[in-house]
Design goal:
Blueprint (H helix, E strand, L loop, with lengths): L1 E4 L3 H11 L9 E8 L2 E9 L5 E8 L5 H16 L4 E7 L3 H10 L2 E10 L2 E9 L10
Parallel strand pairs: 4-5
Antiparallel strand pairs: 1-2, 2-3, 3-4, 5-7, 6-7
């Protein structure tokens, strides 16, 4: 059975960092995850929060139904608790399956940063509060 992890940000943050090739510190961040049988299978890190925007990094190794609760929790945190206007994802353009997945979550391409990833460009994706489908309309 899958379980949402809310209060183990260091463990989840480290797990996500390994999977998204984050070599530096997240700085001030929060992290949410999903655990199955004691093993993390999904995680989301939210960092660089500035009052209007935050960066979002997602890693998943075993999709499960708990992903819906994970994304609801992340969106609730970002848009209701922090009252952000948007969350931003950065994905190298040589990872088209990741870009497609993020777009299925509701992120939209905003622009391409030339030469911003090792060996590739970087796609900047955004999810706006007023377009977020993970939260019930207020």
């Amino acid at each position: 059975m899958a379980q949402l992890i809310l209060f183990d940000r260091e463990r989840v943050g480290h797990w996500v960092a390994r999977r998204v090739n984050q070599t530096g510190s997240w700085g001030d961040f929060n992290a949410f995850g999903v655990e199955m049988n004691g093993e993390l299978v999904a995680g989301v890190v939210i960092h660089n929060i500035n009052g209007a925007n935050a960066f979002c990094h997602i890693a998943i190794t075993k999709p499960c139904k708990a992903m819906f609760q994970l994304f609801y929790t992340v969106c609730d945190y970002c848009f209701r608790q922090l009252e952000l206007k948007r969350i931003t994802g950065l994905v190298p353009t040589d990872e088209p399956e990741t870009i497609r997945f993020d777009m299925k979550l509701g992120f939209k391409p905003e622009f391409i940063m030339k030469d911003a990833a090792p060996g590739a460009d970087m796609c900047v994706l955004v999810m706006r509060h007023d377009e977020c489908r993970w939260l019930p309309k207020e």
